[in-house]
Write a structure and sequence with these properties.
alpha+beta; 4 helices; globular; about 160 residues
């Protein structure tokens, strides 16, 4: 196989592999940024979990679930290959976000369920964590802005000199 032939075969595969939907990017960024967050802050931005349970090691599991009614796309199956099916152009319909907390800190965030979207993993889970990412961005902006000064810009204290 010539180099040009290999390029024709590999280039489309590489381009497709590099694609990620906005939902996938949100879900992965959330995994990086939310781990380490205080549990109370996480619940303030993500909401109260549908279920929670304390484990024998003292950590707590919080469960968030989301179901999408319509996902679009086309489902295909090939009965001559043992009924193996796949979707084209569709997103998953269900996301289960599992958050583990120890000593009031998020120590892990995982996604399960039928949660992949058209060109990426875990994209269906983005709505469950998007609010926390926005809150973290606001906190970053507040931390980066200079503190408000109590004195006016001119440096006067409100009395006129005599």
């Amino acid at each position: 196989m010539t180099n040009l032939s290999m390029l024709r075969v590999l280039l489309p595969a590489l381009l497709l592999a590099s694609c990620a939907t906005p939902g996938t990017r949100v879900s992965e960024e959330a995994r990086r940024r939310i781990v380490g967050m205080e549990a109370n802050s996480f619940m303030a931005c993500a909401g109260i979990p549908q279920r929670s349970r304390t484990l024998s090691d003292g950590s707590e599991i919080m469960s968030y679930e989301q179901t999408n009614a319509s996902t679009g796309g086309v489902n295909l199956s090939a009965p001559f290959v043992g009924g193996v099916g796949f979707r084209i152009g569709a997103s998953g319909s269900y996301c289960h976000t599992v958050v583990r907390v120890r000593q009031n800190r998020v120590i892990s965030l995982n996604y399960t369920g039928d949660n992949d979207d058209v060109a990426g993993q875990n994209g269906v889970c983005a709505p469950q964590v998007r609010g926390c990412l926005r809150w973290l961005e606001e906190q970053d902006q507040l931390a980066a802005s200079p503190p408000a000064s109590a004195a006016p810009a001119g440096g006067t204290s409100g009395t006129s000199p005599r």
